[in-house]
Amino acid sequence: MAAKIKWVGIDFGQCLMSPSSLRNPLIFSEIGKLLGKQEMIPVWIHRMRRLKEKYGNYSAIKEGHRDEIENYVLDGDKEAHRIFRIKEQEFLSLPPGAGEFLEWLNQKGIKPDVVAELKKTLGAMGADIVTGFLLHQKIMSRFRNLVTPQGKVNLATDERDPKYAGTSKENGTLYALLIEDLAREGLKPENCVMIGDKLSTDIIPAKERGFTTIQYTGHIDMGPCASSDYYAKDFFEVKAIVEKLI
Question: pTM for the complete prediction?
């Protein structure tokens, strides 16, 4: 008999956070108007596109290279970057079915963890893209921890666990440490499911360590993968899958 799922991890960029509604030109247009720098709007848009070419997608920029938005795109203008962070949250959204899935999962007694590949030091709650998004969407209470290569944060108490610093989702060291922590709660890898879109960071390393994996294809479909146990194009499908596993 298959082990029941008791822990759920959800990737952030292009999974829990849907960038489908994000329109960078609109954000930079708002910044230009507010600061009286309309002439810089096309320059900022061009530089942001250059960053996308460099890192592959906007989620990679926002999770791992946010300093380049301020320092390169916006020429180190801190006020422009402050406005960018505010406007950015107004345009980001949850993917279809995510709200319903989180409510249902909590009702089942499971508070999931956000497992994100943040590459910059965690600051105050709400200062980073992930906790800022959770606060803006009013779903912070639906989660237990934010787990990143910069540390693990208890989202209810703001307690920080620095031993995750220097780990990586891609090389699997973050998942290995997670397994140790979950073992202290009596959980084994077969009790855990990881949901994400990126094969190299969410699916393959998690599967190699015994996690059940759900490849989320709602924003980017990276194609079939031997390490993917299930596929879901929205969180309604994620719920249907997890419902059979718990």
Answer: 0.85
